[in-house]
């Protein structure tokens, strides 16, 4: 993998040079991991005019780069004495010592105070904005990244499938969420990809719902959204079920509408398709079914080292899908006081010649009465 990280850093170096900056400071944790692999918490990466340096306040538990002989294109590891210093400030000081005239920083990741501290540490260095250059490099995943996400999807599916085989009536949303997260770890996940969402009854279908002590009852919709973190890569799956022997007519109508919308969104995932088009075809199905009021502003988003990353599938999103870009398609409708339906999947965009979008989460989307 060290060659992969080196190639990623080389691409970023080329972009910085083309923009007029001989040095760059990468501080966003997911971006540092993308360029170096697993690193200590809080570490930053200086792409310097002389040498790349990984600056941290603690030594890594394992070598963050290759375990063989040092490579000339690997960053030097600098562990700061004491835990109170700021690695970003130390990196800016290193850039100044290497006579860098400018330093590109991730302004979207820095607080105002931290940005000022960088300027004070290197007053002769002009601070420029690196923008979302690393995030753009992260958009298209390689085979190893997709393999990790595929395993993360399998772990999430497995945890959810096992839960559905247990008795659910009478258990609280909070209890079910905790059990799901325990099952993820038991099956080999590093942890949950995000706080697990469990919503029952009137809470079902609410986006980002935090589990409460509300107990599952007969006749409820039950919405579950969970994800696994495997080797830093994340995957998301969400399903809605009915508790009891059979769903009510209104529950079937609502579920069928959301299912049709989600299917339309999945089928729209192809290289060259505009982000906003995927959102539009999904939203149109729900609007035509009479559920257009109060729809969420986002139909889906990218996923990888973070559970919510570029691209965004929204009405105003600019850009087009590329092959090997993982995204979620997760429409939902919530009816206040009654509950709602959400169906989430993670897919990898693939051309039609390769079979179309690859589904990473395969738990059945049939409306199950549990």
Describe the protein:
With 370 residues, the protein is of the alpha+beta class. It has nine helices and 17 strands. The protein has helices spanning 2-19, 29-36, 87-97, 112-121, 133-138, 143-164, 173-186, 249-267, 275-288; strands spanning 23-26, 44-47, 53-56, 76-79, 102-105, 126-129, 191-192, 197-200, 221-230, 233-242, 300-302, 309-313, 326-329, 332-335, 339-342, 345-348, 358-359. The strands form five sheets. A six-stranded mixed sheet has the order 4-3-2-1-5-6, sandwiched between helices. Strands 7, 8, 9 and 10 form a four-stranded antiparallel sheet that branches. α3 (87-97) packs parallel to α4 (112-121), α6 (143-164) crosses α7 and α8 (249-267) runs antiparallel to α9 (275-288). The radius of gyration is 23 Å and the shape is elongated.
Write down the Rg: 23 Å
**How is the main sheet built?**
6 strands, mixed
Spatially, the strands of the biggest sheet line up as 4-3-2-1-5-6
Question: Could you tell me the mean pLDDT?
Answer: 94
Based on secondary structure, the structural category is: alpha+beta
- Number of helical runs? 9
Fraction of residues in β-strands:
15-25%
Shape: elongated
How many extended strands? 17
Low-confidence stretches: 64-70
Tell me the distance between the termini.
45 Å
Helix content: 25-40%
Organism: Streptomyces endocoffeicus
InterPro entries: Creatin/AminoP/Spt16_N (IPR029149), Creatinase/aminopeptidase-like (IPR036005), Creatinase_N (IPR000587), Pept_M24 (IPR000994), Peptidase_M24B (IPR050659)
Domain Creatinase N-terminal: 8-140
Protein name: Aminopeptidase P family protein
């Amino acid at each position: 993998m060290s060659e992969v990280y080196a190639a990623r850093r080389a691409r970023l170096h080329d972009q910085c040079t083309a923009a007029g900056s001989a040095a760059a400071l990468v501080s966003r944790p997911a971006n540092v991991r993308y360029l170096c692999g697993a690193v200590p918490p809080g570490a930053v990466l200086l792409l310097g005019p002389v040498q790349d340096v990984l600056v941290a306040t603690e030594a890594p538990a394992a070598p963050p780069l290759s375990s063989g002989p040092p490579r000339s294109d690997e960053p030097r590891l600098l562990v700061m004495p004491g835990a109170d210093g700021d690695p970003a400030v130390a990196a800016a000081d290193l850039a100044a010592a290497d006579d860098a005239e400018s330093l590109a920083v991730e302004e979207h990741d820095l607080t105002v105070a931290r940005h000022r501290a960088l300027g004070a540490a290197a007053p002769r260095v002009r601070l420029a904005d690196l923008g979302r250059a690393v995030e753009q490099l992260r958009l298209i995943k390689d085979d190893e990244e997709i393999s990790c996400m595929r395993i993360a999807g399998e772990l999430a599916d497995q945890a959810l499938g096992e839960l559905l085989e247990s008795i659910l009536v009478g258990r609280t949303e909070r209890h079910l969420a905790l059990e799901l997260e325990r099952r993820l770890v038991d099956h080999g996940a590093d942890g949950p990809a995000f706080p697990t969402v469990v919503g029952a009854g009137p809470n079902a279908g609410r986006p980002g719902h935090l589990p409460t002590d509300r107990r599952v009852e007969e006749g409820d919709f039950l919405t579950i959204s969970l994800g696994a973190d495997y080797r830093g890569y994340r995957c998301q799956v969400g399903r809605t079920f009915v508790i009891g022997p059979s769903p009510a007519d209104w529950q079937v109508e609502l579920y069928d509408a959301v299912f049709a919308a989600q299917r339309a969104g999945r089928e729209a995932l192809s290289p060259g398709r505009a982000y906003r088009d995927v959102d539009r075809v999904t939203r149109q199905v729900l609007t035509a079914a009479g559920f257009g009021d109060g729809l969420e502003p986002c139909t889906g988003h990218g996923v990888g080292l973070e559970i919510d990353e570029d691209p965004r599938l929204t009405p105003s999103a600019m850009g087009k899908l590329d092959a090997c870009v993982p995204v979620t398609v997760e429409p939902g409708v919530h009816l206040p006081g009654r509950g709602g339906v959400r169906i989430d999947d993670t897919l990898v965009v693939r051309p039609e010649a390769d079979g179309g979008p690859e589904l990473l989460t395969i738990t059945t989307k049939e409306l199950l009465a549990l």
